[in-house]
Write a structure and sequence with these properties.
Elements lengths: L3 E4 L7 E5 L6 E7 L7 H12 L3 E5 L10 H9 L3 H17 L3 E11 L1 H12 L3 E7 L17 E8 L5 H13 L4 E10 L12 H18 L3
Parallel strand pairs: 3-4, 3-5, 5-6, 6-7, 7-8
Antiparallel strand pairs: 1-2, 2-4
């Protein structure tokens, strides 16, 4: 791993994983976990951002807990304290912007699965978020206040997804359109939920690579220092 585990704002209960580019400076990005927790895959995503010149912070929303099986992961997701999660995300944004390595006055936020919905929530509750990427976001108890959303949204979805299905994507698209919020959605044909997770059998390298490239372009366009 390229990065290090850190305490967020000195809060003993709030930790995360911080990856800094070799240059020592870069635009900040918050990386939000899937329902598995802050596992190796998410830390690797933060490392990949650092390799692309970003300062990436992945906060630990499950406070040290992780899961290996879907049933266990689902229980952790449904037990998530949304009020505390909002506080963790706000502190993560503030912490990242305060880092000497972070350039600019705003950060990007990206999340996968559960984290995708939370990326929308973080963007709508933190005006310091300048761009939001949502990968097949889902969480039934998270309702972003889109009226407050200032950042443009980039969404990636799968054709075959029992969680964020076509109807759910269409509903989100309509909600953002009604609210007058800038957004761009892409649905990849033939792939399944979590197609970007290379630790899972549903991983699709072609679709994941295309989404990654478009996301980097999106962040670089909207987060210029």
């Amino acid at each position: 791993m390229k990065g290090t585990r850190i305490k967020i704002n000195g809060e003993s209960n709030y930790e995360g994983y911080l990856a800094v580019p070799d240059s020592g400076r870069g635009t900040g990005v918050i990386v939000i976990q899937e329902w598995w927790g802050l596992v190796g895959h998410i830390m690797n995503v933060a490392d990949r951002f650092a390799e692309e010149g970003f300062v990436a912070l992945a906060p630990d929303l499950f406070l040290g807990k992780t899961a290996e099986e879907p049933e266990e992961a689902g229980k952790l997701m449904m037990a998530l304290n949304i009020a505390e999660t909002e506080k963790i995300l706000a502190r993560a944004v503030k912490f990242l912007l305060a880092q000497p390595a972070t350039e600019g006055e705003k950060v990007g936020v990206v999340g996968y699965c559960m984290g995708g919905q939370l990326s929308l929530f973080a963007a709508a509750t933190n005006p310091q978020v300048g761009a939001c990427a949502d990968f097949y976001g889902i969480h039934p108890n998270v309702h972003p206040p889109f009226a407050n959303l200032q950042a443009p949204v980039l969404g990636f979805f799968a054709e075959h997804d029992d969680y964020a299905n076509a109807a759910a994507v269409a509903a989100l698209d309509a909600e953002l359109t009604r609210a007058g919020k800038a957004h761009e959605f892409h649905t990849f044909p033939g792939v399944h939920h979590a197609f970007c997770n290379d630790d899972r059998p549903v991983y699709d390298g072609v679709a994941a690579g295309r989404a990654w490239s478009r996301m980097l372009e999106f962040f670089r366009q909207n987060l210029k220092a």
